[in-house]
Amino acid sequence: MVVKIRLARFGHRNMPFYRIFVADSRSPRDGKHIEVVGHYDPKPEIDGNKHMGLKIDRVKYWLSVGAQPSDTVARLLGQAGILPQRARKGPGGIPIPPGHRGFAGGEMDAAGLAST
Known about the structure:
Blueprint: E1 3-12, E2 15-24, E3 35-41, E4 51-54, H1 56-64, E5 68-69, H2 71-80
Parallel strand pairs: 1-5
Antiparallel strand pairs: 1-2, 2-3, 3-4
């Protein structure tokens, strides 16, 4: 049985929040799970921060016994300092360099203007 750490979506339309849980890789996204190990709220609160809560000892346990985090959960665990941070991937799985702003028109100079 392959075990994954992934997100399950809850909340209302346009107001999602996610539970981080451990489940068999064959179970559906919001289906049966083994254990809930945290939560993630992607909507910024009044203080402007996105909130995440983790049971760090349980996450480390599941990682130690071979559970594989999904790409999104791996990014969140990297931000929490549990896993090394991975490079973000763009369309087609191409890594995005740090500090890239998505400008496709050419190189940017120090002032943020496109050089021609």
